[in-house]
Amino acid sequence: IHPFKKYFEELAIGDQLITEKRTITPEDINAFADLSGDHFYAHLTSTNFTGTMFERQVAHGYLLMSMAAGLFV
Description:
Elements: H1 26-36, H2 61-72
């Protein structure tokens, strides 16, 4: 049963909902950066990551949460 169809009393810690997989692409990250205005260097594909703590482009936390919410509903 989808969690939205349960009453609060029926929800339990550890309940899961398995959804389709979703690969987050560099295009997704770039589009979210443009939409949100968050152009932190680690989110940009044009960044040279030499000398930084990052090895490659990093997705925004809010992007991940938004996509997870979309898969949930």
